[in-house]
Write a structure and sequence with these properties.
The protein is 32% helix and 32% strand. It contains 6 helices and 11 strands. It has helices spanning 25-33, 51-60, 71-84, 98-102, 122-146, 162-171, and strands spanning 3-8, 12-16, 41-45, 63-68, 89-92, 107-112, 147-158, 174-184, 187-197, 204-208, 225-226. The strands form 2 sheets. It has a 9-stranded mixed beta sheet, with helices on both faces. Helix 5 (122-146) runs parallel beside helix 6. The N and C termini lie far apart (48 Å).
Length: 228
């Protein structure tokens, strides 16, 4: 059954349908990690119910497009944006088809929260993670083509799966520039990564304390710790 949840109390909300899968704190953390400005053109690859577009537009402004292959999720996202009074474009579209459909070099920023974080079931997460890994290079290639030169891809990825991610980024000329590790106890659970199209060497790594949903721009006042 559908339900309405506030992302920003009294201002911006989202329609959720548990039968389709609900968002977790990970896309919220990614929005705070990504350095989005009011003049950015932003694409969310695999937008699901549109949480990152809805939340980021309310916080920072900018022009947003969200794409997903799940028509039912796209319909929910459109209804959420309409209810919020937001002008956000949501399209049913595969990531691999997006460069031709939306134009090469169209966006200053691309966001990506892979599907294994949609479900709370560990078994489902593991299966989706395996499926996504086989397509990771294709998604990174799409991001490269969609971004302007110097544009950035910001994404979530399991901290224990960074090797294939970094290979896919390197294969597609996306240079990792920032990474923030989100902790769960003493272990890193999630990596938030920003990669620059045609960027050079140099990576800054920080750690986000356990249980904090924000990033470099968190409203909760947490300052990430720099790893040396």
């Amino acid at each position: 059954m559908e339900r309405w949840e506030w992302l920003i109390e009294g201002k911006t909300g989202i329609l959720q349908d548990p039968a389709l899968g609900c968002f977790t704190e990970d896309p919220i953390a990614l929005v705070h990690f990504a350095r989005i400005g009011g003049k950015d053109t932003v694409l969310d690859l695999g937008t699901g119910s549109g949480v990152m577009c809805l939340y980021a537009e309310a916080l920072y402004g900018g022009a947003y497009t969200g794409i997903d292959v799940d028509e039912a999720q796209i319909v929910l996202a459109r209804r959420s944006a309409e209810r919020n009074g937001q002008t956000i474009r949501f399209l049913t579209l595969r990531a691999e088809d997006a460069p031709d459909a939306l134009g090469h070099g169209t966006f200053t920023r691309v966001l990506m929260n892979p599907p294994y974080f949609v479900s709370g079931d560990p078994g489902a997460r593991a299966t989706a993670r395996h499926a996504d890994a086989s397509q990771l290079s294709d998604w990174c290639r799409a991001a490269f083509l969609l971004l302007r030169n110097g544009g950035t891809l910001s994404l979530c990825y399991p901290a224990d799966g960074l090797a294939p991610l970094f290979r896919a980024l390197d294969e597609n000329r996306l240079a990792p520039k920032r990474m923030q590790l989100v902790m769960s106890g003493q272990r890193a659970r999630l990596a938030l990564v920003e990669a620059k199209k045609l960027g050079g060497d140099g990576l800054m790594v920080t750690v986000l304390p356990d249980g904090r949903p924000g990033g470099d721009r968190t409203p909760f006042g947490t300052q990430p710790k720099l790893l040396v």
